[in-house]
Amino acid sequence: MPGGRARDPDANVEIVGGALNLLSLPKYGKYLHSYEELLAAHDELIAGDDRTTVLHAGDGVAAEGERLFVALAGSVTPLTDEERDVLRTLAPHCTTAVPDAIPVRENRALVNQVRVAEGGDLLLDTVTDVLRLACALSLGDVTLAEPTEFLLTRRERRALLAGLDAVVRGNPAKLGDVATHRERWKRLGERLHPHEYPRWPHAQDVFAVARGEKKAPSFAGRIEALLAADDVAGAADLAKNAPGVLFRSLDRLLRIDPDAAGAVLDAAESAAGQVSGRVLLSVREHLLNRTKRTKGTRVFANRTGRGVAVADTRPPLAPDAFRRLKNLLEAEVGSRLPAPAHLVVDPAVLDVALPLSGKATASGLGVLPRGSLSPVDGELLRFFVYWKQRELRTDFDLSALLLDRNYGDPHWLSYTSLRAVGGEHSGDITDAPDGASEFINLSLGKVKAKFVIPQVNVYSGEGFDEVEESFFGFMLRDEEQRGRPFEPKTVRTKSELRGPARIALPLAFVRGKDGDWQAKWMHLHVRGHMLFNAVEGNRVTTAELTRAVIERRYLTVRHLVDLMTPAELTMLDGVPVPAGPVTFIGLARPEGLHEDSTVYTLENLRDLIPA
Fold first, then answer.
1. Angle at 355 between CA 354 and CA 360, to 5 degrees
2. Separation CA 595–CA 232 (nearest Å)
3. Cα–Cα distance for residue pair 504/386, rounded to 1 Å
4. How far is CA 291 from CA 281, 319, 328, 355, 552, in A?
5. Residue 192, phi then psi, degrees to nearest 5
6. What span, in angstroms and rounded, lies between the C-alpha atoms of 602 and 369?
């Protein structure tokens, strides 16, 4: 029946508009063989140079828990969602273990949550700190990205009001921060009833500002007023009172009025010592992408990894101002880095991007921050997706987009193109009540493309945040290696898939001029459609995002190593591990390293970033 719907009673399949509905086939999208049947047709893995991870025994649970708590609470960079959950869990059990400082305000809120219960002193210096604490006490989102329903006891309400009163009493200008979260303050006021507590009048002022009954100009508003009056030097001088704001605004201030560059940089030099190392390094990375050679596309990613690429239309910075700012940043960061007696570095870590934010990575095994490069040292590349649905029938589709050196001439491997361009797809699985996987194999020597971009599309059903479990990974083998269909020994990485978008871009594989391949970590998502996402429909967006990430220059561990001034430097490239205590930086702790060594690996790489 052309243009309509019919069913072939003999074959028991559905015809829609003259086309066969694949989902109506009895065996389509389902496993046709058990894993045991597959094993019977395969040999054991032929040993290659597969990595072996040496596990080091730790201390007792209490000691390791306190050590982890101190490391997380004292982190100088924002944590991932999973790490914040761990910190929230550990905090009530580690009340005697206190880091020297808690610079990240989300972490401070989780520590304050425990202190409220114990009646201890609270770490509060802005009104927003109090708002984050209210979210923590209500088991809500301390990042303030998601709304929180405030559920507070009388004791907690008193602690919040007393804290607010102390903050505003000490500095009434802090009321200027209220407008940023005006509606949240209104909702919180409905729970706190500040008018019932006349002994805390300054706390009542916060809610008066939120309701518009009292005026309190924001700090940003005062800066904008000066800029509107063409007083760039005055705006920079005012911004010194919030050094982090000043440094994040330097590019804009230097562009508005090049004649005021000297005054702007004078302000920056006077405030540099009060700026966190993370902000200094972020500005330094920003400068890497503000040269004529790097002008092109900018990429923005929010906390959930959703990425957007836009053209960079900003005029260049004046060369003299650029050099002066670059030298200031490197001198300030270098002065805060340790000067170890003997520094040992694994060269494989040099191209790992500095973890300046928990938003730039995902949890998993062997996962690197966005912008990192890692070598792909096998001949057969297999990447895979695994998912397990919770309630609804869910179809994730693994695909690969292949592009030439100009990010054009697209080809792809997917459920609509199972064999092409030197690779093969395992086939489409459309239901995962017990978990399901899809694979793509590539013979890297046969691939003619410059870029291979794996992607996971939510075709139907539950999204990445809704399924019980989902992850992406890849494994490597040599041509002569045989083995099981899924051999864990050859897995190089496993990255969790989470986020509200419907298309995931974990990484891209890039072929170098010498033919060697590298993985460039992206950790990006594309919103996509609610249903029927496919590689053919998002190839333009995917190409733009990939180009923006690959061509962007990221600040890596190499930058910090270059700024350090050790008495002795050893590159651990085929040489034995030194016998005595050293400072080691690498992907993993090498066997034989002295137990008294200071070690920085992927687990604690953020500790390299100075406070």
1. 120
2. 54
3. 13
4. 17, 9, 17, 23, 11
5. -85, -25
6. 10
CB contact at 8 A, 424 and 400? no
pTM of the model: 0.89
Q: Tokens in use for 1?
A: 């029946």
Q: What angle, rounded to 10 degrees, do the helices at 105-118 and 81-90 form?
A: 20
- pLDDT the model gives residue 570: 96
User: In this structure, what DSSP letter does residue 379 have?
Assistant: S
Contact assessment for residue 455 and residue 503, using Cβ atoms and an 8 Å cutoff: yes
Structure tokens that stand for 554 in this block: 């990221």
DSSP3 helix / strand / coil % (the chain, rounded to 5)? 35, 20, 45
Q: Which of 35-44, 165-174, 504-513 has the lowest mean pLDDT?
A: 35-44
Beta strands at 436-443 and 380-388: parallel, antiparallel or unpaired: antiparallel
One-letter amino acid of 415? Y
| In the predicted structure, residue 9 carries a pLDDT above the cut 60 | no
pLDDT in tens, 67-124: 999 999 999 999 988 899 999 999 999 988 889 899 999 999 999 999 999 999 999 9
Q: What is the mean pLDDT of residues 156-179?
A: 96
Residue carrying the six token digits 């200094």: 280
Contact present, 13 and 25 (Cβ < 8 Å): yes
Token reading at 193: 């009833």
| Structure tokens belonging to residue 587 | 């992907």
CA atoms within 13 A on the CB side of 104: 25
